Amino acid sequence: MAAKHMADWGASVTLLEPPEGSPLRNAPPYYETDGKRRSATWEWLSRGKTAVRLTDDAAWEACARADVVFVESEMASSVLGRHHVRADHAFRYRRAVCGLRGQ
């Protein structure tokens, strides 16, 4: 939600997805457009963001260049791969880092 609010307020937000895509792309509720079923949850939460699927090395480099990094613990290992264990140390000196835990 924090990254969604940042995008709503005009920030340039890039959402890094795991190679297989975010599980939210398949989360209910659904709607249909152009004959395709889509996730309303995904559409709402990703609105205003640029979603990209990167290798774990490229995702790590993108995070290292970012001014602000939001890390959802459940997605960190699938997006950052082997680099997720280094995140705490590497992001310690960033302007803002938020570690988010799911319920």
Can you give a write-up of this model?
The longest helix is centred in the middle third of the chain and has 10 residues, at 56-65. The protein has helices spanning 2-8, 40-45, 56-65, 73-80, 87-90; strands at 13-17, 30-33, 36-39, 49-53, 68-72, 96-100. It has one domain. The chain has a two-stranded parallel ribbon with strand order 1-4. With 103 residues, it is α/β, with parallel strands linked by helices.
Short description:
The protein is of the alpha/beta class and 103 residues long.
Topology:
Elements: H1 2-8, E1 13-17, E2 30-33, E3 36-39, H2 40-45, E4 49-53, H3 56-65, E5 68-72, H4 73-80, H5 87-90, E6 96-100
Parallel strand pairs: 1-4, 5-6
Antiparallel strand pairs: 2-3
What oligomeric arrangement do these chains adopt? Answer: single chain
Helix content: 25-40%
Strand order of the largest sheet: 1-4
Number of strands: 6
Largest sheet: 2 strands, parallel
Give the low-confidence spans. none
Key descriptive features of the protein:
single chain; 103 residues; alpha/beta; two-stranded parallel sheet; 5 helices; 6 strands; 34% helix; globular
